[in-house]
Amino acid sequence: MLTQQTDDGKRSSLHGNWSSRMAFILAVTGSAVGLGNIWKFPYIAGQNGGGAFVLVYLACVILIGMPVMMSEILIGRRGRRNPVRTMELLGKEEGGSGRWRWVGGLGVVAGILILSYYSVIAGWTLAYIVKSVSGVFAGASPQAVGAEFDNFVGDWRLVGLTHTVFMGLAVFVVARGVERGLEQAVRFMVPALLVLMLVLLGYSISSGYFGQGVAFMFTPDFGALTRDSILAALGQAFFTLSIGMGAVMAYGAYLPEETSITGASAAVVTADTSIAMLAGLAIFPLVFANGLTPGDGPGLVFNTLPLAFGQMPGGVFFSTVFFVLLSFAAWTSAIGLMEPAVAWIVEHYSKTRAQATVGVGLLIWFIGLGSVLSFNVLADARFLAGTIFDNVDYLTSNVMLPLGGLLIVWFAGWVMSRNSTSDELGGSGALYKLWRFSARYLAPVGILFVLLNAIGLLG
What is the pLDDT of residue 244? Predict the structure, then answer.
């Protein structure tokens, strides 16, 4: 049996259940909060005019992101298996076809591929903790900061080492199981991440440029909005919640029956979005205080911010806090990305959790070597979207995730019966009707626009 019953007759996953609603919220929040919130959101907002972009982003999170998350959780809890088996069983039960297992498989593969390069970038944050503690950025010029980054990513041995260390950290947590590993880790790391963020925010408030940062983020300039900006907000809202890759579905399989999916989803979306907002409020004042540009793109974290920290009083401390925060955020996301594949191997091949985790970790580590070498030895080996790193990033972010999310919300809205979905969502009132309308119409249309734009079919 892949599901079991607790003493009170309620369904439970083979892998165990979260001990409480809060444990689930922390776990999904940890999976959702990652480099996308702290690294990507500030620079995308910076590139798209700030306030107007933030408003569109918030609307997309509520109207599209939350319905998709609720759909993924209810599917996971309904099936109580790994994403592949859950989609197969529910597909047969609800739609008469086991082929829906390929949707679960798409999420598992996407998680493996995403973590293969995510681990490489997360490894950089570990290296930058060491650099910050040693005072490398103190008083450094822009040229010195840039050279430090170039020298680091140009050395495949160092990048490979940090990739290996980070994957080892993820394997350690996932191998320990749901309550002893995942739950214990997020109970510590998610609150710690929030505390670190508040420390950095406190410094930003005292920088003298906090008002400028607030104005940039929350004063809408609708003239700066373009179609690309709106689609970027839609895409960011979708990807920042960690949906479409099986992680939320896998975590949903461990959710106790008495927990409200709507309430838990609202709590996760609120926490995830709040951390993205806090990241912007912490980062933009530091950027303005040092006369830097808020739209500096991906280099904002590894070039612009180290330069800013190097020029401020207490920069060594705050730089260290920032990169520890980034590492924690990446770590909690990594364990969520690994979980679907590990759960599938445990169930499909009857392996122990430790065996499955080590096997998945080694596979991800090996695939990640392509991304490690993309920044040095194979930097000039370009095809299709660019380097190996560029291609894996493009395939997962622009094709696999939106396609997976589209199929998941379509399955929940159109294939599953009203009785099944209302049973999981706790009734058929106004909130249920709003979810059903969003899952059937708003979310699929929004995700389809993201997908078509990403693959260049919108012109």
Answer: 82
| Residue-wise pLDDT tens digits, 418-438 | 999 999 998 778 899 999 999
Per-range mean pLDDT, top range of 213-222, 223-232, 351-360:
351-360
Q: Which residues contact 430 (CB under 8 A, 6 or more apart)?
A: none
Rounded Cα gap, residues 247 and 245, in angstroms: 6
- Domain covering 3-454: architecture: Orthogonal Bundle (1.10)
Residues in CB range of 404: below 8 A, 6 or more apart? 103, 106, 107, 110, 244, 245, 246
Compute, in degrees rounded to 10, the torsion defined by CA atoms 262, 266, 267, 272: 140
Single-letter residue type at 21: R
Pairing mode, strands 3-5 and 11-13: antiparallel
Q: Which of 298, 297, 354, 368 is nearest to 123 (CA)?
A: 368
Cα separation values, 246 from 166, 322, 339, 446, Å:
21, 29, 8, 20
On the question of pLDDT at 306 being above 50, the answer is yes
pLDDT tens for 346-364 read 999 989 999 999 999 999 9
Q: Would you give the DSSP letter of residue 297? A: T
Tell me the pLDDT of the chain averaged across its residues.
86
Least confident of 81-85, 87-91, 324-328, 388-392: 324-328
- Look up residue 116 and give its two tokens: 């293969």
Domain borders along the chain are: 3-454
In contact, 305 and 128? CB cutoff 8 Å: no
Burial 159-198 (b: 16+ CB within 10 A, else e): bbebbbebbebbbebbbbbbeebbbebbbebbeebbebbe
Query: Which has more confidence, 58 or 3?
Result: 58
Sign of the CA dihedral running 292, 294, 299, 305:
positive
Condensed to tens digits (0 to 9), the pLDDT of residues 433-459 reads 999 999 999 999 988 888 887 777 766
- How far apart CA 276 and CA 151 sit, in angstroms, is 30
Q: What is the token pair recorded at 313?
A: 């009083």
Q: Given the structure tokens 């822009």, which residue do they identify? A: 142
- Nearest-10 crossing angle of helices 101-133, 156-175: 120
In sequence order, what DSSP letters do the residues of 352-365 get, joined into one string? -HHHHHHHHHHHHH
Q: Give pLDDT tens digits for 24-53.
A: 888 888 877 777 777 778 778 877 878 888
Rounded CA-CA distance 454/107 in Å is 18
- φ and ψ at residue 383, rounded to 5 degrees: -155, 155
